Amino acid sequence: MRSTILSRPAIGPLMFVSVVISLSSLMQPLAAQTPRPSGTTSSNRQTPTVLAIRRASPAVVNIHGQKTVRATAAGMAGATGPDSFRQVNGMGTGVIIDPRGYVITNYHVVEDVDEILVTLDDGSTTTADLVSARVRNDLALIKVSVNRELPTIPRGTSSDLMVGESVIAIGNAFGYVHTSTEGIISALHRDVPVNETQEYSDLIQISAGINPGNSGGPLLNIDGEIIGINVAVRVGAQQIAFAIPVDQVVEIVTEMIDDHNEQRLLTGLRTNGGPRDGDGVTVAHVSASSPAARDGLKPGDRVVRVGSRPIDDRLDFALALLGVTPGEPLELAVERSGRQVDVAMQFDAAPRQASAATVEELAWSAIGIQARPVAESTIRRLNARMRTSYRGGLYITAVRPGSPADQQSIVPGDVMIGIHGWQTSNLADLAEIFDHPDMQRGPRAKFFIVRQEQTLFGHMQLAAQSGVKRR
């Protein structure tokens, strides 16, 4: 049975008095009651906050879904067997940045979700696919399944924020969709450690109410423009919450989309331009014999339109290429020497590496772990306490049952600092280890982990693996 959180007061003397007072007010002469003219609205009610929420709300979506987690994550240490996993409901928020349905949210909102469900502003629900993610920055891009254009969030900048200015947060707080709260910017440039393995940097601290479900939602200025992505709250505190600045979000998401596009398209060009240039994207380099060189693009060209889409910055350009199919004709408008030139482009498909696998996939198949880099601040604290000099480590978040890691009693929470004599400071280090000829023969590798401020080691048998495709 659901607990009651709202209740009506019982009818008693106070209620009776309030009714009497209400009835007596109706007994005033008709002349004393001044009706508001039909069709008019008091200007005092349409405050800047009302207008800001009204402007941004159509581009805010609610995200929900289920993920499978080990029972140990729920405090059932030592649980094994088929009943050691359970389904957990998750919820969060996202913002639409492209009318085709591309949405930014926090990675932890969609991490390991079996099916991403998205509720739009009109109440309709659809599914979404994960396009790209940056785990260390806790950002993800998803694509909503729609066959119509959606409203996009008005974009502001976080470069000129002021402590004390009013801000508004919109989100799926505790499942109450499109909950709006208001506050001020309490501080800027906050570095916030979340746990032993993750730390956010350069965040906006706000006093607006943020709750579970707000993650991934927009932080707005009083003009209704997004200036940040709400990401975290201070547990046990009141009116202490944090958001990722929008300029940082734009830069990271642009890099994510560029990486995704490079896996699909061979363009042969590199571009420059800040997130708020507003006057296009400059071609910085064109590779010889590339599609860009073949079709006439030159360094210094400023791309101002792709197809029918105006291009104001690098994010616009990256998003425009998301819709391009290899071999499909594409019209670009560029400014060259003070005049506009139309360029007919046709990007080739990126070369495929059928035998290659991502380092994440190899870590799971060859070792049996999922891992993420440990925050630098955590390594510094660890080195100070243990009197060591580790450059970094990989925090183990999951272990595959029956894998080499499982057989060697490696558990989530361990920090892997080395394999076969090489340090594992990050996933790039792990990729180089997998690529090394000595590892291709599948040796019995010595590994080192840190557990409860102790360095432990063991040996595991790794199967021979194919090359690594970095991403």
Automatic annotation (TrEMBL):
Keywords: Hydrolase, Protease
UniProt key word Zinc: no
GO term, biological process aspect, one: proteolysis
GO function term, MF aspect, one: serine-type endopeptidase activity
Enzyme Commission number(s) from the entry: 3.4.21.107
Region (Disordered), start-end ranges: 270-299
Ranges for domain PDZ: 252-313, 356-421
Family assignment from sequence similarity: Belongs to the peptidase S1C family.
Protein name: Putative periplasmic serine endoprotease DegP-like
Lineage: Bacteria, Pseudomonadati, Planctomycetota, Planctomycetia, Pirellulales
